[in-house]
Amino acid sequence: MKQEVLGDIKILCAINNAEFDYSKTLWRPEVPKEIAARINKYQRGKLPHVFHYAKDKKIKNVLPLGNHTLDRLIKVIPTTKIHFADLFGEFDWKMLMSNHNITLDSKKNKAIVEKYNQLNKQKKGIMKEEADENKGRKSAERYFFKYVKREMLKTHSNPKYIANVLVYYLYKVKNSESKDSLWNSFGKEIIDILKCNMEKTKVCEDCQKRRIERKQGKKFCDVCATKREKERLKKISFARKKNIKKAL
Description:
Elements: H1 2-20, H2 22-25, H3 33-44, H4 51-54, H5 69-76, H6 84-88, H7 107-121, H8 123-135, H9 137-152, H10 159-173, H11 180-199, E1 201-203, E2 210-212, H12 222-247
Antiparallel strand pairs: 1-2
Helix pairs in contact: 7-10, 8-9, 9-11, 10-11
């Protein structure tokens, strides 16, 4: 088994090398079907744990830490990079919204997004112009973000509505890495929405995950409540069978 895996690794290396050189050689190998099927099975599994750090893959999409060389290095070498999911679980961007019916179908919302993108394209030029006037980078940044908010309010008078649209666009549609213009321009509104949403949530007593409290006094989230109910019914069923056996 080990020799077969090593053989497949060698074949993969050969295929990749041929692919890299294709622009020079104009040749790529034809992989036999049985070899292709064998190699494809490796692509179905999760990525090695190191990809969580190297490529920012979500922890649920990578293998758990093992005893391989890179996995052992991860355990030994401390990381200064903070991974939010490792500390607080999976981030739910919907908690930053007060209106979950937002879409980008309407002209009004499309105009908000277009204006935001247009202003971001001007960021470098505006900040350079401000910084050149001996105001410094920090001062230039403050000016730009105030300018963004002022201009965005021309598309809609309600800053919280704008924040909702931009959160949906940047977290759901575009999934952008850079959101500094959003947070520096509408951070106060987003924090207010988050605080309000947090007041409506409760921590599940079983899994310790935070959830929106739809029913007052409910101790468990839907998943844990279903699990507990199944266990309860299982115990009742077992007790019933036990009593029937005794009666016979």
